Hints:
This protein is of the alpha/beta class. The chain has helices spanning 2-15, 25-40, 76-85, 105-114, 139-145, 157-168, 171-182, and strands spanning 47-51, 57-62, 96-101, 118-123, 149-152.
Amino acid sequence: MAEVLIAELIQRLDQLEADADYPDDINGLYCCRLALDALEQGNYGIAAILIDAQGKVIAQAENRVFSAGYSSHAHAEMLLIDQLEQGLDCPPEELTMLVSLEPCPMCLARLILSGIASVRYMAPDSYGGMMSHAERFPPAWKNLAQLQNHYEAYISSGVRVLAADIAATNLGLLRKKLLSHIRP
Ligand SMILES: Nc1ccnc(=O)[nH]1
């Protein structure tokens, strides 16, 4: 069942073409490919990339929450910030993160502290996303959040819907896996 769904998503991705009117479409399609890889490996279908001032992708990460037992922190954004802090050859203030799903509260907190100039998310997440509610963070965090640009990505609707669908695939199964770790 899940495999059929994943095969359909791969087919949709292969048929989508970047629309030149939307500057994030090419990178957005790349993020969808990484997100599909995360999904195929039994994780949440979410991925993120870091883009430098010249538009070059300098790092990438996929959700890895269930890759080694259970790693609650292993969201795509967190793993990418780890790479940055361990030493990427680019100052954070020159970087943009593109992420396939709106960041959650945990990731938003860390993004705010990362120094990354801009964060663009592809699919909004009305159930778990925090980036569109950053004004509800405590004052110190809210103030720091104002130093970072938060946007929805400049992508065509086909790419946005695909990113949302990849993130929504296998959610029932993944929720069960999560609960088996936090309420065994
Ligand atoms: N935005 C995200 C939500 C959940 N998991 C992730 O890796 N990313």
